[in-house]
UniProtKB/TrEMBL annotation:
Protein name, per record: Beta-glucosidase
Biological source species: Planobispora takensis
Catalytic activity: Hydrolysis of terminal, non-reducing beta-D-glucosyl residues with release of beta-D-glucose
Domain of life of the organism encoding this protein: Bacteria
GO process annotations (BP): cellulose catabolic process
Length: 440
């Protein structure tokens, strides 16, 4: 069964940040620090999904999807990231899973979508090896409660983005700007993944994945300096997180003048434990040139000549086909089935006089990318699912509520939900099914 779904993340939609024993996360702390998030927005209320989840499940039923990818908030389950389980926190996800099962919607649980308990960050966060072991304990607790009804598990969401934006550049929580000093956060996240895979297998999980944000990397020219820079960027963004999982080894980090000296014997065996699928989040390709000064060994040269989203990201649907077929060429039989666990776009959505949102640009975006995924499948990539980001307009990290990705418009003052034109289009597209073909 091909999985058609939508995706969300706990801090972006739940709100209720102090209810039922939930502890603070790094995002609670970060969002309340002046200047960190645009206009001082926070996820304190967000979409109030914690209280409005039945309404949101009804929206999924109306959408006709057969799967829903959501994340569990670690601080709801273990307020300090370790120790006794907060049963009230798990009760929320228990109700949510039951509600999905009653509606014949497959729950796809992401265990970590960036909201690390603040207490663990205070103890070193993902720069500390201990966090990987705490993650495994948390995973075991969630699996013990939910694995009897949740067939699909995703350990980490976009460890590259969390390392780069959270630890290297300081754009996201926890707000550290360590540049290459952030690399241990890559290994410790992946070690946590490996330990979590073992915990999930022991807990009876049916399907286990990791979700990586990947981008096809294009050199700015055929100049050897640009080619070398593009290769360096590909190592950092793509291969640093795919190679250990799929091949059991790290790529050579020589372009960065460093090594991962935090890797211990046996780590890569854990990290490369067999998976049932690879989650891929795709938004756009990247064009890379030689560095223009000291620092990182590449420069983002930008992609021009395409429409852009409200975020300014180029809309290049064929980049998804390029990415998927490139992964198949690089990893061959080591590449498991692929699930596109996020794909979508922000648009300046505004309700018209009739209260509706006619987001034709989003419809064109989704149509082009689904066609690209079908073409990749026709070229031999085993594509088994497609999840739109996102079900709801939500808290978009450092952009606050200024970027809208949802199929459903949310009035954040009233919490009123209004399905957009793209919602109704996607419902019909799901009915058509996924048809691998070179030309649809």
């Amino acid at each position: 069964m091909f999985l058609w779904g939508t995706a969300t993340a706990s801090y972006q939609i739940e709100g209720a940040v102090t209810e039922d024993g939930r502890g603070p996360s790094v995002w609670d702390t970060f969002a309340h620090e002046p200047g960190r998030v645009r206009d001082g927005h926070t996820g304190d209320v967000a979409c109030d999904h914690y209280h409005r989840w039945p309404e949101d499940l009804a929206l999924m039923t109306g959408l006709g999807v057969n799967s829903y990818r959501f994340s569990v908030a670690w601080p709801r389950v273990q307020p300090d990231g370790r120790g006794p389980v907060n049963q009230a926190g798990l009760d929320f996800y228990d109700r949510l899973v039951d509600g999905l099962c009653e509606r014949d919607v497959v729950p796809a649980v992401t265990l970590f979508h960036w909201d690390l308990p603040q207490a663990l960050e205070d103890a070193g966060g993902w720069l500390s090896r201990d966090t990987a072991h705490r993650f495994a304990e948390y995973t075991a607790a969630v699996a013990d409660r939910l694995a009897d009804r949740v067939p699909m598990w995703i350990t980490l969401n976009e460890p590259f983005v969390h390392m780069a934006y959270g630890y290297a550049m300081g754009i996201h929580a926890p707000g550290k700007a360590l540049l290459t000093g952030a690399l241990p956060a890559a290994h410790h996240q992946l070690l946590g993944h490996g330990l979590a895979v073992a915990a999930l297998r022991a807990g009876g999980a049916e399907r286990v994945l990791i979700t990586n944000n990947c981008t096809p990397v294009r050199p700015a020219s055929d100049d050897p300096a640009d080619l070398a820079a593009a290769d360096a960027y590909d190592i950092l963004h793509n291969r640093l997180f795919n190679d250990p999982v799929l091949l059991g080894r790290y790529p050579d980090l020589a372009p960065y003048g460093t090594t991962l000296d935090c890797v211990r014997d046996g780590d890569l065996d854990l990290i490369s434990a067999p998976l049932d699928g690879l989650g891929i989040n795709y938004y756009n390709p990247t064009r890379i040139a030689a560095p223009t000064g000291e620092g990182l060994p590449f420069t983002d040269a930008g992609i021009t000549g395409y429409p852009v989203t409200a975020f300014g990201w180029p809309v290049v649907p064929d980049g998804l086909r390029e990415l998927l077929t490139g992964l198949r060429a690089r990893y061959g039989d080591a590449l498991p089935p692929v699930y596109i666990t996020e794909n979508g776009c922000s648009q300046p959505d505004e309700a018209g006089p009739d209260g509706n949102v006619d987001d034709q640009a989003r419809i064109a975006y989704l149509d082009g990318h689904i066609r690209a995924a079908e073409q990749a499948a026709a070229e031999g990539v085993d594509v088994r699912g497609y999840y739109v980001w996102s079900l709801l307009d939500n808290f978009e990290w450092a952009e606050g509520y200024h970027q809208r990705f949802g199929l459903v418009h949310v009035d954040f003052a009233t919490q009123r939900r209004t399905p957009k034109a793209s919602y109704h289009w996607f419902r019909k597209r799901v009915e058509e099914g996924f048809a691998p073909t070179a030309e649809r």
